[in-house]
Amino acid sequence: MKTFIPFVLVVCIYLPVSANKGLAGKSLTFPTKTKTSSVKLYPIRCPDLLAFTLCMTAASEETRSYGLFSYATSHNANELMIWKGKNGEFSLYLSRTIVSFSLPEMNGLLRHICVTWESRLGLVTFWVNGERSVRKVSNKSRVVRGHGTFILGQEQDSVGGSFDIDQSFVGEITNVNLWDHVLTASEIKVVSESCHGLGGNIINWESIQYGKIGEVKIEDNQDCTV
Question: Of 123, 30, 134, 182, whose CA–CA distance to 191 is shortest?
Fold first, then answer.
């Protein structure tokens, strides 16, 4: 008589041993220019995107150009990037296409920034503290490729690296959330006025796995005490 040994299939999602979980009520402070200090985010899923809403709260006194958010894939190091230029210019990089907006300067004050995009019409909109910019058109019918690398604090010239000290972020970032669809104007207004509640279904600040390198400080967000 044969003996049958049960077979159990175990599926695992691997994360770095050093990964931490959740940044609810926390801010990331990048105190100085470096070519190493960064925070890598590990979402549970990272699909191709036909639309997105990316929001964050940030402050910086730097007047030079720097990256606020960097997402790179094996196809393109600037698959999705928020770039702060000089004189209040903010740009959305989608692959090799750049669309720029003239927004108020950072001036060291915390502000809530969102950008939305959808592939069908190619509409791009920036939102500052719940108020929207003019709409522009870019990357109609394009796809943002999935399975890439998310970095805060640095701009990726290759996947996960090749950082430039002169493009590094100095300041504070908190409440970074990414959705796979365009939020409504009323939803963006709610998100801009609250630290908790509506978290992204790709990146959710309250539950995101993350790993930090270098001089990044993780501190209590004094604006989110409840």
Answer: 182
